[in-house]
Design goal:
It comes from Parvularcula maris. The protein contains 15 helices and 29 strands. By secondary structure, it is an alpha+beta fold.
């Protein structure tokens, strides 16, 4: 491969130390698989000089590739979920954004938005070259719980960003109020058609219908509608669409893919496994509705968008806030399980508790139940088994063991924050993730734990740095210098969000790494805590082999 200063390149190895001289010298930075870099034009035998992560130094030429990796960043957005994906074709997918500003700060840091000169932005400088807003290709709002979607309001309000396609589960929170006396309105998700089960009637599938609802309630305090309105105000051409799978498609064995990501022209495919819509008829009209799984919270969480993303031999599950009711429902549909697999688990546990005193009759029952459970797991793995799973509902206890056994991941990633009333991740959930993880030593990552290692020293240093910025800002009288101090202070806040707590997955061909930034680097060449997965050709699965 002949390198050019005009092209983009990437790190080709799990990790590489950037050094001050060819073949040696001081460590300048620690680079990982897929990091973007530029070639400076200088070479020395087998070595090339590059610019990467803000530093310039030397690496082996064979440690550089022109092929972009798949990058999946589980952003530390505090309480909630937030995932940033860059495809091998350099397209951006955002799945959820938490409840606060962290996703917006991450994007500002990642794409240097504070230094981007966009005409419609308040800091636009007509003396500098104008740039278009940075385009986010895909946004996915997995379900209408504000710790997943409300962070998008600040993302959508950033004038230096623009948006193309926005996908959602079809459940749209709107003000209460009956509009059809023949429907029941137990919550604010739209009317239900009575039956067994009750079905949510007003599932919003089209961009046109969503615009009608936002126009109908222009002053609503509902955060979901205000978030959607912010996107329309930012990018008038943005297109909203529900995403899911029809029950008829599932029963016919048809696969449904996210937009164009069907895997035919790329190693990347994103299959849609949920939510599952079902036909419901009301007043002579039939629509694709969603069944009522329980309370308002249970229903909207349970009908989260569920993706199974594959890249070559790697499989990743992204499942919003799937709860016990939803997992029972999905196992029933995909694995011919009884309506409540969780009840089958309870029956097995009750009989196993009898120990050696179990009767012959109960032993027959136990054997029968175990065989049924084994068949459910076997059938479910044909659809759901993955190598990496984003833990549903932030490590909540609202899970069933069988669903985790079906996922059978070697890696589980938990996104959770500091809202103590939830206490996520729950101790029993952590134990269950480990119990049903694949391999001798399955990996469990947590954005909260990654951020909390030696927590107090980095936080104190960070707060001292902010106080220094604030004192300099207060003392400065020159407007231009004040603006520069403010920009640098915001950049530091953005970087703090981006660096601490984020879990990153990188995949290039069969090379797979997961990494988290060390809060206290051992040296400039050891900044990452990195784990590599190896593909076992005998089992056909990835595994983690501890050193």
């Amino acid at each position: 491969m002949s390198l050019s200063t005009d092209k983009d390149y990437f790190i080709a190895r799990p990790d590489v130390v950037l050094r001050s001289a060819p073949g040696g010298g001081a460590a300048r930075n620690h680079l990982i698989l897929g990091d973007w870099l530029k070639f400076t034009g200088q070479t020395s035998e087998r070595f090339v000089k590059i610019r990467c992560r803000g530093d310039v130094g030397w690496v082996l030429k064979e440690e550089v590739t022109e092929v972009r990796a798949l990058e999946v960043n589980f952003v530390d957005i505090g309480q909630g979920d937030g995932c940033h994906i860059v495809t091998p074709d350099d397209e951006i997918i955002l799945i959820d954004a938490g409840v606060g500003s962290n996703m917006e700060r991450f994007l500002s840091w990642r794409y240097n938005l504070r230094g981007r000169n966009v005409k419609r932005a308040p800091d636009f400088d007509p003396e500098k070259a104008e740039k278009e807003p940075w385009l986010i290709d895909y946004v996915v709002m997995s379900h209408p719980d504000n710790d997943h979607y409300f962070g998008f309001e600040q993302v959508f309000q950033n004038p230096k960003l623009a948006f193309d396609k926005v996908f959602h589960s079809g459940i749209v929170e709107r003000p209460d109020g009956a509009v059809d006396a023949r429907l029941s309105y137990p919550d604010d998700l739209g009317g239900y058609v009575d039956g067994n089960p009750k079905m949510l009637w007003d599932v919003v599938h089209t961009n046109k219908r969503l615009k009608e609802i936002t126009a109908e309630f222009p002053r609503t305090r509902k955060q979901f509608l205000s978030t959607i309105r912010a996107c329309f105000e930012n990018t008038k051409t943005a297109r909203f669409k529900s995403i899911g799978k029809k029950r008829s498609q599932l029963e016919a064995g048809q696969r449904v893919f996210f937009d164009k990501f069907e895997g035919s022209n790329s190693p990347l495919a994103v299959e849609v496994l949920g939510p599952i819509t079902e036909p419901v008829t009301h007043n002579g009209e039939t629509r694709n509705g969603l069944r009522k799984l329980g309370s308002e919270s249970v229903t909207k969480n349970g009908h989260s968008v569920v993706f199974r993303m594959t890249y070559g031999k790697l499989a990743v599950m992204l499942g919003g806030d799937l709860n016990t009711q939803a997992q029972n429902f999905l196992l029933n549909l995909y694995a011919a399980a009884p309506k409540k697999t969780s009840k089958l688990e309870d029956n097995i546990a009750k009989l196993e508790a009898e120990g050696d005193s179990i009767s012959a009759r109960d032993q027959v029952k136990l054997d029968k139940y175990r065989a049924k459970l084994a068949s459910i797991i076997d059938a479910g793995r044909r659809t759901f088994q993955v190598d990496v799973a984003k833990a549903c509902h932030h490590g909540s206890s609202h899970i069933i063991d069988t669903f985790l056994a079906v996922l059978n991941p070697v890696v589980t990633v938990i996104s959770s924050g500091d809202r103590e009333s939830h206490s996520h991740p729950r101790p029993d959930a952590l134990g269950t993730f480990g119990k049903h993880g694949r391999g001798r030593r399955p990996l469990i990552f947590s954005t909260e734990l990654a951020r909390s290692t030696r927590e107090f020293t980095p936080i104190i240093k960070y707060l001292e740095l902010l106080r220094d910025f604030e004192s300099r800002l207060e003392a400065e009288t020159d407007p231009d210098k004040r603006t520069e101090i403010e920009r640098r202070m915001q950049d530091r806040k953005d970087r703090n969000v981006a660096v601490y707590g984020m879990i990153t997955l990188r995949a290039l061909s069969d090379t797979i790494v997961l990494a988290q930034k060390l809060e206290e680097p051992r040296n400039p060449g050891a900044k990452w805590d990195l784990y590599e997965l190896h593909h076992n050709e005998n089992t056909g699965m990835y595994e983690y082999v501890p050193h």
